[in-house]
Design a protein that fits this description.
It contains 16 helices and no strands. By secondary structure, it is mainly alpha-helical. Helix 4 crosses helix 5, helix 5 runs antiparallel to helix 8 and helix 9 packs antiparallel against helix 10.
């Protein structure tokens, strides 16, 4: 990087300067990947033990909806204050602070255990994630200005790996390790972001920060159409995923197929990994294009229908396809801010997108839990997921066929 923040000219491959540059890029990609894991691994540790929490704390279905959606609400509510922190302190410092908050609060969620502590620490954890999320796209634009597509795919792959780890390993590995105690299970997963935070502090001299200062802009352009289109696109995709994750365990338990909870949760989250690998390979061809964004919500809605009406084998397949569709949509949506605005404005657009998108994806699953409580019809809890898919399709339809590239699409 040059002193004014532009990418330095590439050194010939094989030279000392080229080797140092390659190592620096690999380090930054690794840190972005770990940050992605940290933003999901503690969040998705709840669904596998949700029936235990439900039993011990006697939560209603509305309470379940609030518990699983509360971090999403905080991702929305704290995104803009997070943008302010990024503008004043720098994206790297903001990311470290957010990750450490996630680690500490997540580990304390099961203290007691009590409903008050569970919800209070879930609230704080959501704030930590909300601060970290707009910081990471800013770091993508700062650290990898000539490889935005690759860097975005790397950190989104971290998001998906984090979801898969906690969803797939909690029931068969972590829960038996802590003798069936769900509070200890949540504390074990909190060690992951704690390790990343310590690592980033130790390597801070090798990780440049984004420009910051007392006059740096931080407010999203609320009057612009782009922030709303990207927000509703993200919100619709997230609703299809989070809504399914929230109610899948209790739904399968209610319809007498509790044995499918583990396989379906594992498929829902593991199905995301092939999508992220596909995005890594095809990033230059699919990022910033409208056609793939239109295909994602159609695929998600069809996959949800397969999950709800199919026999057991197809339920698992449908759950996996929901995860695949949502993950591909997430990569495509999160790649848009660094691709469409200058690096100095990425945190503002990202914060606005997260505020709109996660606000939307908080409200709909909450309504799904309320409808289930009122109607006593389990399948009604998934209506918000279908509504989210429809919203994402409408938002993608309003985007241009190809986004303008501000930072390069490789």
């Amino acid at each position: 990087m040059t002193p004014d923040g532009r990418p330095a000219a590439a050194a010939p491959r094989g030279t000392a300067a080229g080797t140092v540059s390659d190592r620096a890029t690999l380090l930054r990609l690794a840190v972005l990947w770990l940050a992605g894991i940290d933003m999901r691994v503690t969040l998705l540790a709840v669904p596998p033990v949700l029936t235990l929490i439900h039993r011990d704390l006697r939560l209603s279905e509305t309470g379940v909806g609030v518990l699983t959606s509360l971090p999403v609400l905080l991702m929305a509510a704290a995104a803009v204050p997070g943008s302010l922190l990024i503008a004043r302190a720098g994206a790297r410092r903001a990311a470290i602070a957010g990750i450490m908050v996630v680690a500490i609060s997540s580990g304390l969620r099961g203290a007691g255990p009590s409903v008050a502590m569970l919800f209070a620490m879930t609230f704080v954890m959501g704030v930590g994630v909300a601060v970290t999320q707009p910081a990471v796209p800013s770091l993508v634009a700062r650290w990898c200005a000539d490889r935005v597509g690759l860097a975005t795919a790397a950190y989104v792959n971290g998001l998906l790996v984090g979801e898969t780890l906690s969803a797939a390993l909690t029931l068969p590995l972590v829960l038996p390790l802590v003798r069936g105690a769900w509070p200890s299970t949540l504390a074990v997963w909190a060690l992951v972001p704690l390790g990343t935070g310590v690592l980033m502090l130790a390597l801070r001299s090798r990780l440049p920060d984004a420009a910051a200062g007392p006059t740096a802009p931080w407010r999203p352009e609320w009057r612009g159409a782009l922030v709303w289109r990207l927000g509703l696109l993200l919100g619709g995709i997230s609703t299809a995923y989070f809504g399914t994750n929230a109610f899948l365990p209790d739904y399968l338990h209610t319809v007498g197929q509790a044995g499918l909870i583990g396989p379906c949760l594992a498929a829902l989250n593991a199905g995301q990994l092939p999508a992220s690998l596909l995005a890594l390979i095809l990033a230059p061809r699919i990022t910033g294009r409208r056609a793939p964004l239109l295909a994602v919500p159609v695929s998600a809605a069809a996959s949800l229908a397969v999950f709800l009406i199919g026999p057991p084998a197809l339920r698992v397949l449908g759950a996996g396809l929901i995860g695949f569709s949502a993950a591909l949509g997430l990569v495509l949506a999160l790649a848009l801010p660094p691709l469409t605005v200058p690096s100095r404005d990425v945190h503002r657009l990202s914060a606005g997108m997260f505020a709109v998108g996660y606000g939307y994806s908080f409200l709909l699953p909450l309504l799904g839990g309320m409808v289930w409580d009122l109607s006593h019809v389990p399948v009604s809890a998934f209506l918000p997921a279908f509504a989210g898919a429809a919203t994402a399709f409408a938002a993608a339809s309003a985007l241009p066929p190809r986004a303008g590239l501000a930072s390069g699409g490789s």
